[in-house]
Amino acid sequence: MSPSPASNRPAAPATTGRFGVRIAGTGSSLPVGRLTNADLEKVMETSDEWIVQRTGIHERRRINHELNESTHTLSAAALRAALSAARMTGADLDLIIVATMTGEMSCPSVACLVAKSVGAGHAGAFDVNAACSGFVFSANIAHDLIKGGTYKSVAVIGADTLSTLMDYSNAGRSTAIIFGDGAGAAIFRATDDPSKGLLAQCMHADGEGWKDIYVPREARDFPAGVACDPSKFGRVQMNGAAVFKFAVGTFSDLIQETLDKAGVAAADVDMFVCHQSNLRILTAARERFGISEEKLYVNIDRVGNTVGASVPLCLDELVRAGRVKEGHKVMFVAFGGGLTWGSSLWQL
Q: Which residue among the candidates 132, 202, 274, 314 is catalytic per the annotation?
């Protein structure tokens, strides 16, 4: 690996706890193609009014393999943007983590392909699959690896292309209207300012709820009592009512748990960067805590539910708009398949 500019290499800390972790740069990437509600009306029995009323979504992005778009290419593009924002190169990275449930292959990982694409040399690279919670889980992992003194620069990417798992017909309309494709990235770095970094974090899972969101590959993957249907192989199966109930009940409790751990009030948080699953869920959480619309960001109307990419896409848009900046307290919140849910409250 070629040496990095001295200004880009934070000194290795002498002991744990005397330094902090900062977000050095963010980036994102979306497919060229848009899939609007009007487009869906042409291939399934639905309507723009019905979709917007239930989800808040007007359009979502969809990859095109003929344009060489994939989870890997979106991830690499998002990371390149984050590296540019941080004034770094791939060679400056010690580790790359990609949060995804839609890698092109079981092996190699998306992270290894991205490492090659950005010239990360022999930096460590691995994927994390926690569905929609993946980026938040990975950000927590990155923080603690840096805080522990093992790594100094860690790239975390959230990327998913759920369009590859959709059935765009009446049989799959309950899920096809929701999901979109995209990628977002953030670079976490050691800093000599110990005030920066995590104030609190939570990571939870309930394996009993796996059957509410799953992607069967063969007959044995279907839950007990559900008949095997080969037409559903490789397609997301979701119990929408159960997932909605889980999300509504979990979302607000997760925010409160995180606030309690950090010893801060909701009013002390400058921005809530939440997984974009459903506009009604986001609105319910905002109303419970008395959060203003300006402090709970929403982009689901433009990109849909992008799963692992959801939180970092929002983060990058906020950073580029100047709405998230150094000195802010920012909470990341996500929940998804597994079932999983997690949070990450940062002092930037």
A: 132
Specify whether 132 is catalytic.
yes
- Taking only the tens place, the pLDDT of each residue in 52-69 is 999 999 999 999 999 999
Q: End-to-end CA distance of the chain, in Å?
A: 30
Q: Which of 37, 72, 275, 314 is catalytic?
A: 275
pTM, 2 dp: 0.92
Domains recognised in the chain with CATH numbers: 18-191 (3.40.47.10), 197-347 (3.40.47.10)
Q: How many Cα atoms are found within 13 Å in the side-chain-facing hemisphere of 299?
A: 22
Match 């896409």 to its residue by tokens.
Answer: 313
> Distance between CA atoms of 25 and 62, rounded to whole angstroms?
26
| Banded pLDDT at 128 (limits 50, 70, 90) | very high
Amino acid at 306: T
The reply to whether 8 belongs to the active site is no
Task: Verify whether residue 275 is a known catalytic residue.
Answer: yes
Q: Which residues pair with 181 in a beta bridge?
A: 161
Element (H, E) at 272: strand 271-274
